[in-house]
Write a structure and sequence with these properties.
- This protein has one helix and seven strands.
- The protein has 133 residues and is of the alpha+beta class.
- Strand 3 and strand 4 form a beta hairpin.
- The chain starts with 41 loop residues before the first strand and ends with a strand.
């Protein structure tokens, strides 16, 4: 038995408008629809190129974020001291954090009341934390 031939599916075709010369299809390269070219950075003192202030701030924020995330990675498995609201000091073995860095997962949490085997500390409750490398 022969397999039936598949029915061809029509494919939509996009037709570009005629170009400015009347023969080509497309748009004029210097027309209003061309992509904007980025501005050339200004040259500062000593011939160095200065970035715009927005870009400098973005780079600074990116560097700070990277340092913070690296510090979280360095804390894994180390004892960490936390200072919470009301002046409460606790220590624990740091485990992990969630994607939004809203909670810290710790183990062997030593509180003034006693030791908790595992716990989640909300970052909104933490004033500061420190650890030794």
């Amino acid at each position: 038995m022969q397999t039936p031939m598949p029915i061809p599916v029509p494919v939509p075709v996009l037709r570009l408008p005629r170009g400015p010369d009347g023969f080509s299809r497309g748009f004029v390269p210097d027309g209003r629809r061309t992509l904007l070219r980025p501005k050339v950075p200004e040259v500062g003192g000593e011939g160095r190129i200065q970035d715009p202030p927005e870009l400098q701030e973005q780079r600074a924020r990116a560097a700070l974020r990277e340092r913070y995330l690296r510090s979280l990675l360095a804390m894994v498995g180390h004892p960490v001291s936390f200072t919470l609201h009301e002046g409460v000091h606790v220590t624990a073995q740091f485990g992990a954090t969630d994607l939004d860095v809203a909670n810290f997962y710790v183990s062997q949490l030593q509180t003034p009341i006693g030791v908790q085997a595992e716990a989640l500390l909300r970052c909104s409750d933490i004033i500061s934390y420190s650890f030794k490398l």
